[in-house]
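Quick log. Single chain, no ligands specified.
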Amino acid sequence: MKPIRTVIVRNCRGITGVTGGETYLLSLLRGFDPEQCKCLLICIVNPKMGETPWLKQLKKSGLEHVLIPVSNPFSIHDTCEVTRLIKEFNADVVHCLDHRSDLVGLISAKITGRPVVASFLGWTNFPKGSWRSVVYPWIDRLIINRLDAVITDSVAIGEDLRMRKREHPIVAIRNGIDTQKFDPHGSVKPFLQDKFTKEGHFIIGMVGRIHPVKGHLNFLKSAKQILESHPNCRFLIVGSILPGFEYYEQEIKDFIAENNMNESVLITHASLDEVPTIMVSLDVLAAPSFAESFSFTMLEGMAMERTVVSTNVGGATEMITDGETGFLISVDDVVPALTQKITMLIENPKLKEEVGRKARKKIVEELSIELMGERTLDVYKEVVSFYGKKPESSDERLQFLEQLAKISC
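-> predicted structure:
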């Protein structure tokens, strides 16, 4: 059987670093069997931003990709170019990721007569009550309702997206991790900062973009309480600031200074290749987010046998069995709960190690990039097959939905 040919469209006009969406793309593309799926990644970029860290990482990956520069957000240049590339690549299906690319991909796919799917990872970047938190989801739903299928990274996110008057083809495919890259028994060396960490320190970290939704201030409030009884602890915040959220970074720095925590807290940045090094250096990975989809950061920590303490939001409850493969705390009671769980792990190192081992086992058996790639490819096959049966009957559509339900986790 010939391989499925897929054009994947990602809007990167506002992207600088490697966010969850970019990690998703890299994981998915590496998870595909090249004998069964041939992919072309198209990135819509803002030429004024130059070669961003994300584009450098993409270039370094060696994955086949094309950049489409779009200076004016109202331009249709990307739609015209994507349409051309779909024909040139002879794509069987179009796969979109992000608001603009969903619209561009939908229009281009319909012009060229191809089926179109999208990955939906949640609306976690918009502050509650902001106009973006209302307008963007509304526009997204209008577009997504016209796609042939939608892939979510968790059942929880799929429920958030569920349409009201129509049983839309939504498939939950959980994110996967490269278990060879993230291997605690490999040749990864711990992250060392001579002026920060010393032998005997217990290190708790947060890894990922620095954004209000991630809950860094609650992490620091918990750290302040933990240091009162366990001064040998050190707290690591690793991540980059998204444009427009510099004020939040300053709030974090102000809290650290006001509470005399400069010797106990380090804020730093790491490249994607350095993440395994960061993870293996931690005793506990904290994830006190207010909202989340299916966190790659948590998957990476679990793959490296780190014990994760997370709020019970989004896909966290699908990833973690509380007390076995990690710990879940209430999003409504973060600081005391996070303090209690971390203190318990400091005082019970055997429990920490046991939970870490079970976490790694779960990743290897259930959440690898290979499984992620296989299930996504199955969606492509079903969509391409169904799309070729036009005009559709109600029975054919029902059978199509049933087949997608079998793929869904």
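The first helix runs from residue 20 to 31.
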